Description:
The protein has 164 residues and is α+β, with helices and mostly antiparallel strands. It has one helix spanning 123-159, and strands at residues 20-27, 31-37, 47-54, 59-66, 71-75, 83-91, 94-95, 99-103. The chain folds into 2 domains: 20-103, Immunoglobulins (Immunoglobulin-like), CATH 2.60.40.10; 121-159. The strands form 2 sheets. Strands 3, 4, 6, 7 and 8 form a 5-stranded antiparallel β-sheet that branches. It is elongated and about 135 Å long. 13% of the residues are buried. The mean pLDDT is 81. The chain crosses the membrane at residues 124-147. Keywords: Membrane, Transmembrane, Transmembrane helix. It comes from Operophtera brumata.
Amino acid sequence: MSVQAGCCCFSDAGHPMSLQNCSVVNQSSAGLQVECIEGFDGGLPQVFYMEVLALPSMMVRANVSSNSSPVFEVSNLDSHSSYTLILYAANAKGRSEEVALYTVGIRSPDKYTGMSTSLPLSPWLTAIVAAVGALCAALCAVLAALYRRHASRRMGALKRPPHA
């Protein structure tokens, strides 16, 4: 037998610590998935909970629990709505502080199959605009050619010696 060096300290079990690093890891039109890291269990087995509250009404849309790990999955949520997620752990001595996450509703991509509100371009209008553009380009080309011709004549006149 041996002699005990120090006194034997007994600590009473307590409530669990709050969940940590909680994040929405997947959010789709079908639902959402949340993962957290568990805190100290208080010396007792703990259960993890997530409450899903619709915004702005704060009505409970889902209540999910997990005995093994703080990983939650909820389906059948309205993807256009935003939610507050309340996450906590509980054991026989009580519950941890709550962790709140906020999600934003996901809108599906807009589909434009109806009438357009932009300027309608008929084939005739397009042809007229193209013709006017071609005429403007031709006019600019003619003016540039005339200017070069006039400029070259003037330069040639300046280079000739005066007649006596």
